[in-house]
Automatic annotation (TrEMBL):
This is tRNA-2-methylthio-N(6)-dimethylallyladenosine synthase. It comes from Blautia liquoris. Monomer. GO terms for cellular component: cytosol. Belongs to the methylthiotransferase family. MiaB subfamily. Pfam families: Radical_SAM (PF04055), TRAM (PF01938), UPF0004 (PF00919). [4Fe-4S] cluster 2 binds at C196, C200, C203.
Length: 477
């Protein structure tokens, strides 16, 4: 490394986020120099795999890359391509390897190109080993705990010819006030906590996202105040298990208390949150949901399985009966709420009888929408060591039966709003038909209706004219 560059790096302040702003400036100088050499502006592309948490993290990556002087592009032919990876199921990993294979050819053609990898997959040591061996053209690897250090790592990658790797096992650190580039002007995700302490037996998340850490309520409120002054109307509070928010704060605050504080902010028109673990869903939360119209009429309440035996093995801490009672309680306090869920089929030891219990819950609850997953063995989780893995053909058959059932039920459920007038927040122009706009109802269902780009980010009263299974066609009133 050049001597004066090394001297500059040594001058970096220790405290955060000042240190990262320092590195962002340095990255900008380096990118400018590279850009002069290339005789064109340098571009970047952030590719997101996985959940809403990753989507929010990607907005942070974009904020930093823009701060470093790169220009956003949506092409993997860009000069800096970074994959924000997911590892919750095996096919998420396979996708990343497949796409890395094609990136190699792109990089061969572009001497300025750099490739970064971050996110959950990078927290697994065998993944990093595989990349070092089979994909040595990757320039930068970091994990979930040190994403706040991206500006600093970017500088190291820009000045190093070999692969820069920085993956931490865990952290108790939360760095506030880093730049973010939001994808939507009118809605935004807001992290309220990181990590998960539940260790559901099939799930890799606690190993790759670390222990639960809650942000201070004051930091969350101040971020939302800022978002509102920037024009945001809808916030989505994000955490792996929002119902256990605040338990480990110096001055504990419940999730319900946090929601009330956010509902009191003028200008916040809609509040969503994800994800709720049934075992921690309090009566206080149900009351608050019923009391504030700003809190959206939607609850995502992962079931995973309807069999109490399987639930016990999964370490979920509720039975089928307790789950059903909870659903009853919620429906009494928040009439017409839309319930959605996650279900895993083919968990080790799942018998036909266990599967029938899952079907039974599906028929009783009548979800508006269900995310169905085939069990995926994740190395290092307790379930991966179970011997009674269910044969593939049996799993496939159960999966298809479940899918058919949930599709029929959700189409009937969604249809219950037909003919009513609903408030819709317009999200964008319809991609297939530009004479239409697409908006979202409070219960998360999409509505397409005639409109134009000027409506984006506004609330409209829309008459729901036809139901197309998962969405509506409507007309503004
Ligand atoms: N196999 C299949 N699905 C899984 N999920 C988490 N881990 C696994 C796994 N090993 C599902 C759960 C969770 C959702 C985000 O992903 O249903 O709620
Ligand atoms: Fe995984 Fe369970 Fe934590 Fe959800 S609550 S992230 S399923 S361990």
């Amino acid at each position: 490394m050049e001597k004066n560059l090394l001297e500059k790096i040594n001058q970096a302040p220790e405290e955060e986020p000042a240190r990262q702003y320092f590195f962002m400036k340095l990255a900008k100088e380096l990118v400018e120099a590279k850009s002069k050499e290339a005789k064109r502006p340098l571009t970047f592309d952030v590719v997101t795999f996985g959940c809403q948490m990753n989507a929010r993290d990607s907005e942070k990556l974009v904020g930093i890359l823009e701060g470093a002087g790169y220009i956003k592009s949506e092409s993997e032919e860009s000069d800096f391509v970074i994959y924000n990876t997911c590892t919750v199921r095996e096919n998420a990993n396979l996708k990343v390897y497949g796409r890395l294979g094609s990136l190699k050819r792109v990089k061969r053609r572009n001497p300025h190109m750099m490739i970064g990898l971050c996110g959950c997959m990078m927290q697994e040591s065998q993944v990093v080993e595989k990349i070092k061996k089979s994909y040595p053209f990757v320039d930068l690897i970091f994990g979930t705990h040190n994403i706040y250090k991206f500006a600093e790592l970017l500088v190291y990658a820009l000045v190093n010819n070999s692969m820069v790797i920085d993956v931490w096992k865990d952290t108790d650190r939360i760095v506030e006030n880093l730049p973010v580039d939001r994808k939507y002007s009118f809605k935004s995700g807001v992290n309220i906590m990181f990590g998960c302490n539940n260790f559901c037996s099939y799930c890799i998340v606690p190993y790759v996202r670390g222990r639960e850490r809650s942000r201070n309520p004051e930091d969350i409120i101040s971020e939302i105040n800022q978002l509102v002054s920037d024009g945001v109307k809808e916030v989505m509070l994000l955490g792996q298990n929002v119902n256990s928010y605040g338990k480990n704060l110096e001055y504990p605050v419940t999730f319900a208390e946090l929601l009330e504080k956010i509902a009191a902010i003028e200008g916040v028109e809609r509040i969503r949150f994800m994800t709720s673990h049934p075992k921690d869903l309090s009566d206080e939360l149900i009351r608050v949901m019923g009391r504030y119209p700003k809190i959206c009429n939607h609850l995502h309440l992962p079931l995973q399985s309807g069999s109490s035996k399987i639930l016990k093995d999964m370490n979920r801490h509720y039975t089928k009966e307790e789950y059903l009672l909870l659903v009853d309680k919620i429906r009494k306090s928040v009439p017409d709420i839309s319930l959605t869920t996650d279900i895993i089929v083919g968990y080790p030891g799942e018998t036909e009888k266990d599967f029938e219990q899952t079907m039974d819950v599906v028929r009783k609850v009548r979800y508006d929408s269900v995310f169905t997953f085939i069990y995926s063995k994740r190395t290092g989780t307790p379930a991966a060591a179970r011997e009674e893995q269910v044969p593939k053909d049996v799993v496939k058959d159960r999966f298809n039966r479940l899918l058919k059932e949930v599709q029929t039920i959700s189409a009937e459920q969604i249809n219950r709003f037909l003919g009513t007038v609903q408030e819709v927040l317009v999200e964008g122009v319809n991609e297939q038909d530009p004479s239409l706009v697409t908006g979202r109802m409070t219960n998360n269902v999409l509505v397409h209706f005639p409109g134009d780009v000027s409506m984006i980010g506004t609330f409209r009263q829309v008459h729901l004219e036809t139901c197309k299974g998962f969405y509506y066609m409507g007309k503004e009133r």
